[in-house]
Amino acid sequence: MATSSTKGVVDVVFCLDASGSMAPCIDGVRRNLDGFLDALAGDANRKIDCRLDFLAHSCGEDGDLVRSVSLRKSGADLIQALYGQVPQPAAFFTTDRDAIRRGLKELTVYGDEAMLVALDMALDFPWRPQAGCHRVVVVLTDEPLEANAIWSLQQTKLDAIIDKVQKLGVKLYLVGPNSAGLDTLAEADKCLYQKSAQTYDGLGSIDFAKVLGQIGKSVSSSLLQARPESAVKRALFGQDEWVASQDSIRGGR
After folding, report:
1. Which residues have CB under 8 Å from 177's CB, separation 6+?
2. Count of domains in the chain?
3. Which of 10, 153, 165, 218 could be 188's S-S partner, Cβ–Cβ 3.0 to 4.6 Å?
4. Strand 248-250 vs strand 243-245: parallel, antiparallel, or unpaired?
5. Is there a contact between 136 and 212 (Cβ–Cβ < 8 Å)?
6. 69 near 107, Cβ under 8 Å?
């Protein structure tokens, strides 16, 4: 497969476990965002065209009462922007790192997690064409996948998620505890998995400056693969049919 040199064009989505224990992780990403972007540039004199967003996700223990938040949208508005009849690409991504920091600071944590559901939504963001853009998803969680809400359902979609990552040409970075589910997810092509020493600690054992810097350097040094876009199935968990209910949306089962 032909490759092209890195052009400094990158789309990044931070896929965040926003369950009750994850406040330290979210704060760690916010405080070390500049270091990540500096490493992404690779050279102080090199400008990068980097668009950023996040997808923070949590739910009830049964996978219901879902909360999903991006920089500009949340709840039913986010579902409509991603999966509605009228596409809303302008609702996603920004080049303003301060806006991302403000958005992360305003996030609240709640309940349980369903990280494959969150990842599937992050993969459905409106990426720029992969022939000229590095597509990056950074997944951060402090719980093994197999301890997630609705794990039996999520597990049935694991192979489809891996296939989707690869067809989209997404570089997947996983930061989380030792987990058989994350080990399987890490089998995706060119995926990197940084294991934390603890579980349920908001990734407090992780040196975010170091880890995010390493991710940035990895993306900066990688090459783009010139490949045609592949059709992928969106909303693997039926997110496009979730129903609004006050501040949350009911679905995920």
Report:
1. 141, 142, 143, 144, 195, 196, 198, 199
2. 1
3. 165
4. antiparallel
5. no
6. yes
Rounded to an integer, what distance in angstroms lies between the CA atom of residue 24 and that of residue 201? 8
The answer to whether 6 touches 222, Cβ cutoff 8 Å, is yes
Domain range for residue 32?
A: 3-250
pLDDT tens profile 139-188: 999 999 999 999 999 999 999 999 999 999 999 999 999 999 999 999 99
Task: Give the predicted TM-score (pTM) of the model.
Answer: 0.93
225: helix, coil or strand? strand
Beta-ladder partners of 58: 67
8 A C-beta contact, residue 120 and residue 236: yes
Residue 14 three-state SS: strand
- Residue 7 has a pLDDT of 57
Rounded to whole angstroms, the Cα distance separating 47 from 70 reads 25
pLDDT at 252 exceeding the cut of 80: no
CATH assignment at residue 242: 3.40.50.410
Summarised one tens digit per residue, pLDDT across range 111-153 is 999 999 999 999 999 999 999 999 999 999 999 999 999 999 9
User: Could you tell me where the DSSP H helices lie in 20-96?
Assistant: 23-31, 33-41, 75-83
